Amino acid sequence: MNTPLVSLQNVGKNYQQVAALKSVSMNLNQGEVLGLFGHNGAGKTTMMKLILGVISPSSGSVEVMGMAPDSKEAWHSRAKIGYLPENVSFYEQLTGLEVLTYFAKLKGYNKKTAIALLEQVGISHAMKRQVKTYSKGMRQRLGLAQAFIGEPKLLLLDEPTVGLDPIATSDFYSTVDQLKTNGSSVILCSHVLPGVEQHIDRAMILSSGKVLAAGTLSELRQHADLPVRIKPKGLNGAVSSDPKLKQFLTGKLDSQTLFVPEQDKLATLKQLLSYDAMNDVHVEPANLEQLYQHYLTKEVTTLEGDKS
Ligand SMILES: Nc1ncnc2c1ncn2[C@@H]1O[C@H](COP(=O)(O)OP(=O)(O)OP(=O)(O)O)[C@@H](O)[C@H]1O
Is 18's C-beta closer than 6 angstroms to any atom of ligand 1? Predict the structure, then answer.
C-alpha cells in the first residue's frame, strides 16, 4: 500500500486555553485534492500550520512525506511544499518580479521561473511595478504564483480565491487540476463553496476543532441522505395530481420541484418519462453548500439535544 503524503493521527492542538483541534485524523495521498471547510475559528489554518511544521501538535502525530514536519530532518522537504497564507502580504517597496524572484531563489529557482509564473497568473504586465500599487486581486495572484513555485509536491492554500475575479478564479482551478494531473497533492480551505466541488476529490468539514464529516462528496451525500432535486419541465400541474409523484412535492403552490430520496430517484424518473408532455428534466444531487449546511445544523441539533 502507498504511504500517504500527509497523515494526521488523533491530532490535538491547544493554544493556552483554546482547543483549536481535537483528535483529528486524516490521510492525503499523492495526486489528491482535499477541500477543508468550516466556519471562522474552526481550526483550518491551525491544521495547515501543523502540516507545514511551523507549529507542533499538543497530542497525536503529524507526518508529511514520511517525517514529522516540525523535525530538523524535514527542513529539506519544505522546498517541495507550496503555501498560500490567508491575507498574504509582501514587501511593498519591491516590484512583483523582485518579490517572486526572491521567493523563487529561496527554493532554488531563478528569475525565468518567476517571469513564467507571473505570466501564468496574469500579472506579467505589472511585474515591474511596486507591490504597493497592486490591487487586492493582483496581490492574491502574486501570492498564488509564490505558492506554485517549482510545481510543489504538496500545496496548502488558505482561501486561494479571495479577491480573484471570475476569470482568475477559473484560471486558478485549471492550475489546481493541472498540478493534480502532474501528481501534486493539494489542501485548500475556502469559505466560497460554489465552484469548488468539481475540483476536489474529498472534503473535510471542521467545526470547533472536530471533524464533522470527511469523505468523497458521494460518500457525504450518501451519509447525509439528502434528497435529490428533480425539476421536470412542460408538465403543467400533472405532477401534483399523480399519486406517485405528488408525495415528493414540498407543498409550495408554485413549485414543481420534486425532493426525492436517492433510493426513489430512478422510479421517479421512469414515472416522469411516462408523460409525453415532459420536454426537459434537471436532476440535482445535494451540492457542497447543502451538505455543509446539513452537517453543521446536525451538529447544532445534537449539541442542543445533549444540553437538555
Ligand atoms: N496563536 C494563537 N493563539 C491563541 N489562539 C489561537 C491562535 N491561533 C489560532 N487560535 C484560535 O484557534 C482557533 C482556530 O483558529 P484557526 O485560525 O485555525 O481557524 P480557521 O478555521 O482557520 O478560521 P478562519 O476561517 O477564521 O481563518 C480559534 O479559536 C482561534 O482563535
Answer: yes
- Strand runs labelled E in 180-273: 185-189, 202-207, 210-215, 228-233, 258-260
With vertex at residue 187, the alpha carbon angle to CA 140 and CA 135, rounded to the nearest 5 degrees, is: 5
**Which residue is closest in CA terms to ligand 1's atom 3?**
15
Q: How is the beta sheet containing 18-28 ordered, strand by strand?
A: 18-28, 6-15, 59-64
Question: Residues 81, 50: contact at Cβ < 8 Å?
Answer: no
What is the secondary structure of 73-125 as a DSSP string? GGGGGGGGEEEE-TT----TTSBHHHHHHHHHHHTT--HHHHHHHHHHTT-GG
pTM: 0.87
The Cα 262–Cα 275 span in angstroms is: 21
| Ligand 1 atom at minimal distance to the Cα of residue 46 | 18
Per-residue pLDDT of 106-159, as tens digits, reads: 999 999 999 999 999 999 999 999 999 999 999 999 999 999 999 899 999 999
Mutate to test the pocket of ligand 1, among 13, 44, 158 (most ligand atoms within 8 A of CB): 44
Measure the CA–CA gap between 117 and 128, rounded to whole angstroms: 14
Supply φ then ψ for residue 165, to 5 degrees. -75, 170
Sign of CA dihedral 73, 75, 76, 78: positive
| CA–CA separation, 187 and 7 (whole Å) | 12
The residue behind cell 518580479 is 97
